Amino acid sequence: xxxxxxxxxxxxxxxxxxxxxxxxxxxxxxxxxxxxxxxxxxxxxxxxxxxxxxxxxxxxxxxxxxxxxxxxxxxxxxxxxxxxxxxxxxxxxxxxxxxxxxxxxxxxxxxxxxxxxxxxxxxxxxxxxxxxxxxxxxxxxxxxxxxxxxxxxxxxxxxxxxxxxxxxxxxxxxxxxxxxxxxxxxxxxxxxxxxx
Length: 196
Hints:
Residues 16-181 form the N-acetyltransferase domain. GO terms for molecular function: N-acetyltransferase activity. By secondary structure, the protein is of the alpha+beta class. The protein has helices at residues 26-39, 47-54, 56-61, 95-98, 123-136, 155-160; strands at residues 5-6, 17-20, 67-73, 76-85, 106-114, 143-149, 164-168, 187-192. It has an eight-stranded mixed sheet, sandwiched between helices.
């Protein structure tokens, strides 16, 4: 079992169990992720950007400093959040973003997704807190990065309350990498603090 587990009712999340994912959770987690990229992003699975969704075990379970967390209700995965040791690089990220993080010492949050019928239950916040606690327990990490697609309902507002906007590609399209210009994203980049 995981070294991080959040019991029922913790942090205002009632009726869910938040825990580090086990191999048997991966099909449910993958379903939440694929449904999100199809429904919320409007473009579906893109291998170039979403290969981790297909190979969750290699990206999140196998590496020691990576993790995938799930919120489960009645045996069904309702939400996900992942941590990967991955420093943003330019390209494809703007130089203003890549230059803010120390190579090899950055934790990146990925796939913070909640199924629509489970939203407004505090799951995303509780999962992010769990990810940050995991990151804080690793000597390797000195910074936390994430990016979000602004078309995801409530995403920019959620992350703006938790971290600092580093770069908003919606308002700086002339400064975007030519490599990412043709991608179907409206990306906003953030930095979060590691709890100490």
